[in-house]
Amino acid sequence: MTVSEKFPAGWHKAFVTLWLGCFITGMGYSMTMPFISLFIADLGHYSKLQISMYSGLAFAMTFIAQAIVSPYWGNLADRKGRKLMCMRASGVMALTITATGFAPNAIYIIVMRFIQGAFSGYINNATALIAGETPHRKSGWVMSQMMTAGTAGNLVGPLLGGVLSNFFGNWLGGVWGYRIPFFITGFLMVLVFLGSTFLVHENFTPISREEMKPMKEIMHSLPNVKLIVVMFFTTLLVQAANMSIDPIVSLYVKSMMPNSKNIAFVAGIVAATPGLGTLLAASKIGHKMDEIGPLKILRLGLIVGAILFVPMALTHSPWVLAGLRFLLGIASAAMLPAAQTVLTLNTPAESFGRIFSYNQSFQAVGSVFGSLMGSTISGLFNYATVFWTTGFTLLINFILIIFFSLRKSPNK
């Protein structure tokens, strides 16, 4: 084993700490976000239109801020290190989420969400940090495991948030049922900040602003810059595909079982099944990625995902939809982690922060674009058209990957 293949001292402790940090970050986001509209409704005498508008802005502001600010944080990460960025993101998230719990009105929540997005990036920087510390022979598995952290948090968050809201709502009454989960999330993010500060060591030598290569020069020096750019757009399109369905899942389920009294329960299952599929498959797919290369796995994930959207658009059974979305979750474990692994294997260490921050910007744009696409298409046409469009998007992505990865590469 060469020196470059050895795990650095303290790698496993850092990996576990960052994995838990990503889990708590994902859980904290999903624990509070589903109840934002209910929280806003209790803060004033808002009309239905105002509640919908303020809720949409509260959701979108985080991603808009991420897309704008991420390149700046990426530049700073390459000069100061990813650990400092993890500390910054978790510390500010602890403050903003706690402050949101004291919200007096909807505008206050929207402003806090924008600030949170502007200083966010824990999962992105934790992934970049551990990718830089990991031997290339294990990159695929590590990227998959880091994805499972956020996915697992997103699965646990809504359930925990619902339990806490109901419990404290019955105990304290009124709007406090929605405030308490924000305070609990803020406390958990303080623990993430402390863990990232004292339990994570990064082998990084600070670089002065003068010594840094300009991003333009780095992009020109990359062996396959077109492939890197395609990975950015892959992140955008895959994230858009994931988010396009979220706004309409419960409505689509309701259209399949209009007279049922268990719509919320069934919709919850349908919404959760992709995350469960990703969680169960990520480790195996990660190992396979290290064996045969991330591009092959990415191509397979995209074409399988595109195909799965066809029966989703045709089915009239919510249980069949749930099963197909479970399979989509397995395919998803072969998409974003594979794209991130391609970036890891084709990016010099001194530009990790900037490359991953640009990738985060594309992911944030994908979140906004996907949500708007799903809502707009379902409003203009029908729910099934959203699935047809999303599947076609993944097919286009697959064709792009085929076209730009024809060049012989050890990472194919």
TrEMBL record:
Transmembrane segments: 16-41, 53-73, 93-115, 146-168, 180-200, 221-243, 263-285, 297-314, 387-406
UniProt keyword Cytoplasm, yes or no: no
Localization per record: Cell membrane
SUPFAM superfamilies associated with the record: MFS general substrate transporter
Keyword Mitochondrion assigned: no
Swiss-Prot/TrEMBL keywords: Cell membrane, Membrane, Transmembrane, Transmembrane helix, Transport
Membrane topology classification: Multi-pass membrane protein
GO terms assigned for molecular function: transmembrane transporter activity
PROSITE patterns linked: MFS (PS50850)
GO cellular component term of the entry, any: plasma membrane
PANTHER family: MULTIDRUG RESISTANCE PROTEIN MDTG
Record protein name field: Permease of the major facilitator superfamily
